[in-house]
Write a structure and sequence with these properties.
5 helices; five-stranded antiparallel β-sheet; single chain; alpha+beta
Length: about 200
């Protein structure tokens, strides 16, 4: 049993809300993938529009029956499918945030708070009221990002832990940034502009 009192460098209490979960899921998506997806969808969208245009010219200029222009109908269906998939990808953070809050309410009477405590040698993450929790060394954090209301900590195995700015005690957001720069020098940090 641990009898010595450890110094708390920072502590945060985070109670997930729809807005903070949406911020979390937005920050978790890969912008490289979204850019590639936009380029791919743009090219396919243009191709399908050209195919539909060619078939419409055949129908109106050369009096080809509408039912004979099968590639136009296939292109139209694919165009609708691509628009649906593109909208689905763009709205994923909102859907994921709603689902996450519903999952928490399904397993708990109220949305549980998560207390993250930063000590000299480790980070302890536990649900409020819980004695034990996750014990992580600072060396496991590979990426740190900041949103409007959260700091997000990615581990080597791509687990993401949220630290609420409003719930910070002992340090302010600037002090937390300095602490993470000191404790995780190899982590890639994406801080918001302080302007």
């Amino acid at each position: 049993m641990e009898t010595e009192e450890r110094t708390v460098l920072a502590q945060s209490t985070y109670t997930p809300t729809f807005e903070t979960e949406r911020q979390r899921f937005r920050a978790m998506r890969s912008y490289r993938r979204i850019v590639l997806l936009c380029i791919l969808y743009g090219a396919l969208f243009t191709y399908l529009l050209v195919r539909i245009g060619i078939q419409l010219v055949k129908i109106f200029a050369f009096h080809v029956p509408v039912y004979a222009a099968i590639s136009m109908w296939v292109s139209a269906v694919l165009l609708i499918l691509f628009v649906y998939l593109f909208v689905t990808v763009l709205t994923a953070p909102r859907r994921n945030a709603k689902r996450r809050i519903r999952q928490l309410l399904e397993t708990h009477p109220t949305v549980p708070s998560v207390v993250t405590t930063f000590y000299e040698d480790e980070v302890v993450i536990r649900s409020e009221g819980e004695r034990n929790g996750l014990h992580l060394r600072y060396s496991v954090f590979r990426r740190i990002a900041e949103t409007d209301g959260l700091f997000l900590l990615w581990t080597k195995e791509k687990q993401v832990f949220a630290v609420a700015k409003q719930g910070l005690s002992v340090v302010d957001p600037a002090g937390f940034r300095a602490l993470m720069r000191e404790k995780c020098p190899k982590a890639t940090c994406r801080w918001r502009n302080e302007a």
